[in-house]
Amino acid sequence: DCQKHGREEVKIIEKLSVAIKTMISASESLTRAFVGPKHETLAGASYKHSRGSNRSPSIVPDEDSMSRFIDDRTKNKVQDVDEHKQASEFRWPRDTLLSVISTFVHFSSQRLKELNKLINDPTFRMPEILDAKSHTRLADIAHTLLKLGGFDPITMSCRGIQNYFQKLLPWTNWSQEQLRPALNLLLRRIDRMFSKICKKPMTKRCFDWEATAGILNGIYLTIDRHPYI
């Protein structure tokens, strides 16, 4: 019958959540902060090159000056590529983990609510998708991306951080006091990020404000669903 199938589906979701929690537990290395070069913005160098590339020189440089100029430009381009590569390698595993888990939590939470109504048994206990330890670990991982996102526009728009704020945070039970520090950690980081960006014109111009709007929308949804925060 429907109730029997509902209980079986709950067990499947519970087994998946155990696997998810195990994966989160094994991801401690992803809580480490980015240690690569931190310029005003990773897009800054290419931005400045593109702005200056169309300008004609007022004087004709000699051969030695031109050679040094080309060498400097080449070094800058190589450095830009290296920095973007480091940021990409740092971002990718965190982005993937947050994206997968956020999507799972989002759909599983909704499905468990539907199954709870279907089973209609007050004695039946629904499983906990993520525990407090898992939420704290995920918040630490998201925190590392927010720190990188302060000077790397690509990070702010990556699917993982967007899904985390828009799909996972609103569906988290923030009534649990042990989860509040994780949320406060993220909110403080976002506040500091905006403060720093406003003081740096180059970063402000290159910043992905559309992606940031998605993150802020996730915070709004979280507060709207949990006004007691």
From TrEMBL:
Task: Offer one example of a GO biological process linked to this entry.
Answer: monoatomic cation homeostasis
Q: A GO molecular-function term, please?
A: monoatomic cation channel activity
Q: Which GO terms describe its cellular component?
A: axon; cation channel complex
Region entry Disordered: which residue ranges? 45-64
Where does the Protein UNC80 C-terminal domain lie?
4-229
Q: What is this protein called?
A: Protein UNC80 C-terminal domain-containing protein
From the broadest rank down, the organism's phylogenetic lineage runs: Eukaryota, Metazoa, Spiralia, Gnathifera, Rotifera
